[in-house]
Each structure stands twice: as C-alpha cells, then as structure tokens.
C-alpha cells in the first residue's frame, strides 16, 4: 500500500512540477487517440444515418420502378399495370404509388442540374413519406427539394426554381431513404449501368404537376413496397428480377425495364462517402499514431535527461530498478489514460462534423454512442503508446549506476569522425549545429520522421485542395466533387493535427537537445561563444533534419493521395510544392528559437559546477 | 559494542577504465565497523573516500574483494536484492542533500519507509517524529526549496534514519554548510552516536573527524593511517571537540 502511494505521489508531483511537458505529452497522445476514436465512431456513423432516415420516413423495403422503352421501333410507354401487379406478390404487406416520374432538369440561382421529378399525393403516404426538414409537403404549384440538392443549389423554402421550363415556388426541403441524395440520385426505371449521369437530384411535386413536366409516354413510375420481412428484401428482388440470360422470370414477365432496389443496396451506397473518409482517417490515423509515438519517445527521453538525479536518489534510498521503472511508467500511463479520455471525447464530438452524411440523410448523423469496445480499444492504444515509448528510457534509467545518476553527469555523446572533420572548418554556429545534430543519431531520425510525416499530411491536403479547385460544379463530376470535398475536410483535419503534433515534437526535441547540450553549451560560452551563437547553433541543429523531412514528405504526400483516391488525383501547383521546403524551414526556425534562446541564456557557471560535482 | 561487525570489507578494489587509462580508486582496502562505532574517513579530494562509501552502501559494485553488510555479503547479489537491503540497513546522507524537490520535508523523510512497505500512516508518524528530533517539526510541509542548507541536511539525516538502519553512511555531510548549520548537523550526529547508531562519515574536515571513535586516512585508494580516538566517548560534546563551541 505504502509503495503504491509513493509511486502515485511521485508521478503526480512530477507532473505538477513540469506542467508544460506534461501538457505536451497529453497533447501528443491525445492527437493519436482522437484520430482513433474518430475512426471508430465514424465506422458506426457510416451506417447509422441511413437507418435514422429510414425510420423517420417509413422507408420502403423495395423500390420498384418502370421506365418507357426508349424511342424507336420498340417504343412503348411504361407498364404501370405490370408494376402495380407487384403489390400482390407474396410477402408485400403495404405499398405507396405507383407515382409518375419525369426525367428533366432544374435551374436555380444560375445553376442547372438534372433532376428526377416525382409526383406525389398531397397527403402522407404509408410507405416512403419523405421527411420534411424545412417548409411543408407538396401542394399544387410548389415543389419540395431533396435536402442535398437544396444545399448544393443554395435554395430554401420560398425561393423560386425552374423545372422543365416551368416556374415553381419551393415549398419545402425533405429527405428520403428511397433514393440516394444529390448528386447520386438515379433515374427510376433505368438500370444503374445505363444511368451514367452522376449529377442528378430529386424533387417532389404533386402528381398533376409532375405529369405536366413530360409527355405521358415518357413518364416513368415508381412503387414503394413494404415487406413482411424487411431483411428478406434482397431475396424478394432476386426472385423477381430477370435472369442474366435475358429470359424474364415469371414475376417480371410483363414488366419491361423493371428496376427493383432493395433498401440494403441504397444503404450501402449511401455510406460510401463516409467509408472513403474513414479510409483517409485510417491512413491519417496511422501517420498520427507514428508521430504520437515519436512525440512520446522524445518527451520521455527529454524528461529522463532532466531527472537522472531523481532516479539515482530513488535508488540510493532503496528503490529497486522495478520500482524506478514503475514510477516512470505510472506517470506516463496516467497521462495516457487522461489523453485517452480526452481523445474519446474529442473524437466523439468531431465525428459528426466529419462524418455528417450529405444533407440528404436527416441533417446530421447525430453522435453515435461510445461503445465499451471503442473505449477499451482507444484506452489500450493510448496506454500501449505510453508504455512502448517509456519502456526503453525506463529500463535504461533503472539500469543506470546509482552513483552516476546521483552525479547527474551528461550522457556521453556519439562521436562521428567524418562529421567532426567536415564541420571543423565551418563557422561556430554551423559547427556546433552539425555536431549537436550528430551526437544523438536516434533523436535525429525521430526529428526527420516527425517532420516528414507532417509534410506528408500537408502535401496531401494541398493535392486534395488542387482537386477541389479543378472540379466543376455543373460538370458530370458531381460525384467526385462531393467525395473529394469530404476527403478534403477529413484530410484538412488530420493535417492540422499532424502539423500541431510535429510542432510539439520540434519544440520538445529542441528542448531535449538544449538539456543534452547544456554542458557543451556552457563550456562554449565559457570559451567566448555568445548566447546568440549558441541559439543559432541549437536552431540550426533542428533545421537540418527539418529540411530532410520536408524533402521526404513531398513525394510521400503525393503517394498518399494517389493511394487513397487514385481515380481523381491532381498534383498541387509546383510553386506550392517548392514552397513547402523553405516554409518548413522558417516554421521550424521560429519554433526552435524560444527554447534555444532559453537554453543559451542559462548562466554557464552552475552547469559547469554541476559537472564538476 | 557487539562482536560481529556491521560493515565489513575485505581486499576491496574498484577500478575505472582499462589499460593505460586504468584508475584504481579503491585499492585493496580492509575494514570492519562494529555496531555503535563512529568511523571517520579522511583524505584529499580524489583519494577514493566517496567511492569506498558507495561500495560499502551497495551503490557501486567492487572490481574485486568482498563487502558485507549486516552479516550479508552484498557484492555478489543482484541489484534488486541490494536495493532491498539498502532500504532497511543503510541510511545515506549526501553532501548535496539529494532531496526530492517536488516532495515536502515530511514526504522526503517518509520516502524510505514507504519504499520498505510500511503503511502510509505509520510512515507519516515516524517521519513527523524524526522531523521533531531534528528540530524541523514546524517545517514538515515545506518544499526543500523553501529550506536553508542546514535545514535540508537535517531533513536528509531524518530520511536516513527513517528505517532505523544498522549503519548511516555520510558523504561530506557538512561540505555545503556554513558554520552554524555545521554545528546543527554535528549535534545531530552526536545524539545519534550517543544513541548507539553506527556511523561512517567521509570528510575532509578535521573538526568532524575529531568526533569519531576511529579515524582512517586514505590516499590513492589505500588506507595509509588508522587512529583510534577518544572523542566519541569522552563525554565532551562533538561540537566542542570540533572547535565549534566555546
């Protein structure tokens, strides 16, 4: 009991003694846990919005539609009777329709898009009654616009819209689970392989108004079916659809160009956008995880450099190596658990913003509940990150000679002959910088990796931005536009987190270098080197890995975008890529200046005296 | 005094470096310290006094020879076992105090007791008693940074006594103190000596050495002189013997 109290007390007091370092550690691990939480919550969110919409709209289990045969010698109007016959099929318990559908275009605020205009009753339907989010349901002379389309056109109830050359007032904005939201609405009765237009929306009007938009022979019809067993919708459709050889099955024999869409297919398609974002999150989350481990390793290593004497003291009064390791682990595991809690909360809050389905799926997904599995996994990862990063320094500290630890002597640096020769003739700041960078090769690798990962995220965000700027709203690239925009949001969020984490790393690495080089700096000061020269050397020591990291990060960022969304990759402008390197250098120089200056201004005498003791 | 020595070293040697750079910090030392005895070790800087103390307390490993502490050989056992033995049998007092800056005086004193597995309540009670004995009961809740050098060293002594060790090993305990603080510390050692506490004090201050039962002089890692003194048992105060009192 006493030892537990002691371990906890030492951990808490050390955190309180160095709150800034503890906060940085918290931020580093929290960045990783937030991303992980986001990914896990998003996985749930990707499936949830459709279900919410389906519940709110009494969604159909199967949407059946027929279209007229195309004009030509075989031209024939849509077979409404055949469609209606489906209501008598075994397993159908309710239906709405058939409703007339016109394929036309709509124009508002100078923008024109293809629309599927569905004629509905002014009263509520028992199956697939679109949920009105704003305004009211259809009345003669008014149109209700699907929410994603309304959002894209920038229209709301009360605005005017022109459909097939006729002017209508927008009466409301609604959502449905029967059709994918803009820009992926399809033509009823037309097989998906034939419906190549990917910039189509959905509007509802009264049946009379819908019939006026198109010649009677060109109208399609839609029928919404409710089944006794919604889960069996796929089997219901399989039994009715014509077989691949072309000979129709008995059920569909009299219904040419019948299209049957089970609700599961619509759900899966609706979740594609969120799934793409999730793929980006997984890739970005992995980068953030790597960076977080690097941050924790650097932070813990830096803390070790500052508490060697503390370790020696603990051992001198009888602390076993295991207890010393326990003290160090407790501190970092404690911070990790806090970071996990923070990361879970942040991920839970941010998920709806990132994962919010297109406006066609009931506004927001709502925040899915955090499951025990998510909480457990995020906490386990946070603790694992802390343990992995702490273990090596903790074991090293535990094995350090007590006498050496009590003397608090600096760890001897690695000497590289070629580096010493190379730097010998350089000006003092550059000479010190090269030797500082070379004395801790593993820290150098961490610094390079940290900045390479951050630049990877930045370049990927620039590439996505370039894709967005080349997309044309009115073009047939609507689907890609929406997807890219969503990917851009997610990648931007990850990039911001990556850059923040890399900034934390840079500051911490600089501070660790300052601590590590305190004896060398003090000696240099004693020999006449000015604080400014020491500051310049410490900053320059961080600039070298920064520039290497930036150069590595550029191709890595382009490769990341190509891997995530290979169909629509656009390289960012060359000037942006070229600017990444100097901008990284400038930012790193700025970030390192303060800790370097603080370190350089330390009076040399106490440091030299401590070394002597 | 009991017959069995509390601390025993045989042919003790500690080398640093190799080949031409070899430095023999402790070179074939034999020592026995009886229970209740106060031994002072003197010598110039770098003669190996502190290294010897570290070897006796199990903080460092000898290159050759044997070290026995409280009847148990410690140079052949693992780090964990030495730590456990040190926890109960040895109290260290350092020149640089080595208090934990983030812990208060009372928390520093109870550190060893908690490490030894005592209950937090018992450890706190013992720590407060010890602080009272060293005259710092009113400073129990102060952080080391709020204490003077002498007060810090008294806290360190209280910590060294926390687990009622069989021997207290003090490395230049007054090296960083002014005259008044040195007197305070000397008085504490005097009372410990009278209470039968075994003490080994490394110092280069002859005033402190004069208070011991036995004075050993070291040079180049070897014992070059050993003198049995009467100061520790004559009834005169340590402070007076050290020339710090009138």
Describe it for me?
Helix content of chain A is 60%, strand content 12%. Chain A is an alpha+beta fold and 613 residues long. Chain A has three domains: 1-54 and 293-409, no CATH class; 68-256, no CATH class; 413-613, no CATH class. Chain A has a six-stranded mixed β-barrel. In chain A, a hairpin with a 2-residue loop joins strand 2 (92-108) and strand 3 (111-120). In chain A, helix 8 (272-306) runs parallel beside helix 16 and helix 10 runs antiparallel to helix 11 (372-399). The radius of gyration of chain A is 32 Å and the shape is elongated. With 246 residues, chain B is an alpha/beta fold. Chain B has a six-stranded mixed beta sheet, sandwiched between helices.
Give a nutshell description of this structure.
The complex is a heterodimer of chains A (613) and B (246). Chain A has 613 residues and is an alpha+beta fold.
Task: Please supply descriptive tags for the structure shown above.
heterodimer; A: 613 residues; alpha+beta; 3 domains; six-stranded mixed beta barrel; B: 246 residues; alpha/beta; Rossmann fold; six-stranded mixed sheet; four-stranded antiparallel sheet; 8 helices; 10 strands; 33% helix
What is the overall number of helices of chain A? 20
Overall pLDDT level of chain A: 76
The overall pLDDT of chain B, averaged over residues, is 85
The CATH homologous superfamily of chain B corresponds to: P-loop containing nucleotide triphosphate hydrolases
Quaternary class: heterodimer
Which blocks of ≥5 consecutive residues of chain B have pLDDT under 50?
232-239
Order of helices and strands of chain B: EEEHEEHEHHHEHEHEEH
Total DSSP E strands of chain A = 10
First-last Cα distance of chain A: 36 Å
CATH architecture of chain B: 3-Layer(aba) Sandwich
Main sheet characteristics of chain A: 6 strands, mixed, barrel
How many beta strands in the DSSP annotation of chain B?
10
């Amino acid at each position: 009991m006493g030892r537990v109290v002691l371990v906890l007390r030492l951990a808490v007091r050390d955190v309180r003694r160095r709150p800034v370092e503890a906060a940085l550690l918290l931020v580093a691990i929290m960045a990783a846990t937030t991303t992980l939480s986001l990914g896990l919550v998003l996985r749930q969110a990707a499936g949830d919005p459709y279900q919410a919409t389906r519940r709110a709209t009494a969604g159909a289990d199967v949407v059946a539609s027929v279209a007229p045969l195309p004009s030509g010698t075989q031209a024939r109007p849509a077979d409404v009777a055949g469609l209606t016959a489906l209501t008598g099929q075994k397993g159908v318990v309710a239906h709405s329709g058939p409703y007339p559908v016109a394929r036309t275009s709509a124009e508002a605020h100078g923008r024109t898009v293809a629309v599927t205009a569905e004629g509905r009753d002014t009263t509520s339907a028992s199956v697939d009654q679109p949920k009105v989010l704003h305004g009211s349901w259809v009345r003669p002379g008014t149109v209700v616009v699907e929410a994603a389309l309304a959002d894209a056109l920038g229209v709301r109830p009360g605005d005017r819209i022109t459909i097939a050359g006729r002017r209508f007032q927008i009466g409301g904005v609604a959502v449905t689970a029967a059709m994918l939201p803009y820009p992926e609405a399809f033509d009823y009765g037309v097989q998906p392989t034939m419906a190549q237009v990917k910039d189509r929306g959905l509007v509802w009007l009264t049946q009379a108004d819908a019939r006026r938009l198109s010649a009677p022979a060109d109208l399609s019809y839609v029928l919404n079916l409710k089944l006794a067993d919604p889960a069996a919708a796929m089997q219901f459709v399989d039994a009715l659809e014509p077989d691949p050889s072309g000979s129709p099955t008995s059920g569909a024999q009299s219904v040419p160009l019948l299209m049957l869409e089970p609700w599961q297919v619509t759900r899966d398609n609706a979740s594609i956008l969120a799934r793409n974002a999730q793929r980006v999150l997984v890739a970005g989350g992995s980068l953030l995880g790597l960076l977080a481990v690097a941050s924790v390793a650097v932070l813990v290593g830096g803390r070790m450099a500052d508490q060697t004497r503390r370790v020696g003291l603990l051992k001198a009064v009888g602390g076993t190596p295991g207890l010393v390791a326990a003290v160090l682990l407790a501190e970092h595991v404690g911070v990790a658990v806090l970071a996990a809690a923070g990361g879970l909360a942040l991920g839970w809050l941010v998920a709806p913003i990132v994962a919010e389905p297109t406006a066609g799926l009931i506004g927001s997904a709502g925040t899915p509940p955090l499951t025990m599995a998510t909480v457990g996994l995020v906490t386990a990862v946070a603790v694992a990150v802390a343990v992995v990063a702490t273990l090596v320094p903790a074991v090293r500290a535990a094995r350090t000679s007590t006498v050496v630890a009590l003397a608090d002597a600096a760890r001897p640096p690695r000497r590289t002959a070629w580096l010493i020769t190379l730097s010998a003739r350089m000006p003092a700041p550059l000479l010190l910088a090269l030797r500082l960078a070379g004395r801790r090769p593993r820290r150098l690798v961490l610094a390079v990796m940290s900045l390479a990962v951050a630049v990877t995220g930045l370049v990927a965000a620039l590439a996505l931005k370039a894709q967005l700027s080349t997309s044309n709203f009115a073009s047939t690239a609507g689907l890609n536009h929406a997807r890219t925009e969503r990917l851009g949001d997610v990648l931007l969020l990850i990039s911001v987190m990556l850059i923040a984490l890399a900034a934390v790393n840079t500051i911490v690495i600089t501070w660790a270098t300052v601590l590590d080089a305190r004896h060398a700096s003090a000696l240099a000061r004693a020999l006449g080197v000015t604080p400014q020269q020491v500051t310049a050397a410490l900053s320059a020591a961080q600039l070298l890995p920064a520039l290497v990291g930036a150069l590595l990060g550029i191709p890595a960022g382009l490769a990341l975008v190509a891997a995530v969304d290979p169909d629509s990759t656009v390289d960012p402008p060359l000037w942006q890529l070229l600017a990444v390197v100097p901008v990284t250098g400038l930012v790193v120089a700025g970030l390192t200046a303060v800790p370097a200056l603080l370190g350089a201004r330390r009076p040399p005498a106490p440091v030299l005296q401590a070394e002597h003791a | 005094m009991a017959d069995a020595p509390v601390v025993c070293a045989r042919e003790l040697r500690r080398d640093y470096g190799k080949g031409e750079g070899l430095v023999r910090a402790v070179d074939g030392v034999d020592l026995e310290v009886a229970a209740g005895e106060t031994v002072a070790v003197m010598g110039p800087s770098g003669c190996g006094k502190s290294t010897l103390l570290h070897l006796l307390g199990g903080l460092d490993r000898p290159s050759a020879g044997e070290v026995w502490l409280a009847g148990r050989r410690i140079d052949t056992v693992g780090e964990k076992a030495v730590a456990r033995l040190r926890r109960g049998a040895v109290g260290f007092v350092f020149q640089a105090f080595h208090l934990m800056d983030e812990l208060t005086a009372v928390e520093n004193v109870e550190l060893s007791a908690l490490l030894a597995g005592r209950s937090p309540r018992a450890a706190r009670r013992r720590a407060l008693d010890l602080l009272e004995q060293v005259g710092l009961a009113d400073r129990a809740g102060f952080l080391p940074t709020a204490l003077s050098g002498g007060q810090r060293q008294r806290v360190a002594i209280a910590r060294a006594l926390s687990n009622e060790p069989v021997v207290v090993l003090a490395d230049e305990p007054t090296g960083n103190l002014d005259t008044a603080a040195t007197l305070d510390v000397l008085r504490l050692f005097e009372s410990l000596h009278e209470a039968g506490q075994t003490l080994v004090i490394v110092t280069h201050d002859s005033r402190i050495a004069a208070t011991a039962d036995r004075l050993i002089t070291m040079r180049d890692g070897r014992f070059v002189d050993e003198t049995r003194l009467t100061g520790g048992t004559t009834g005169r105060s340590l402070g007076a013997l050290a020339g710090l009192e009138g």
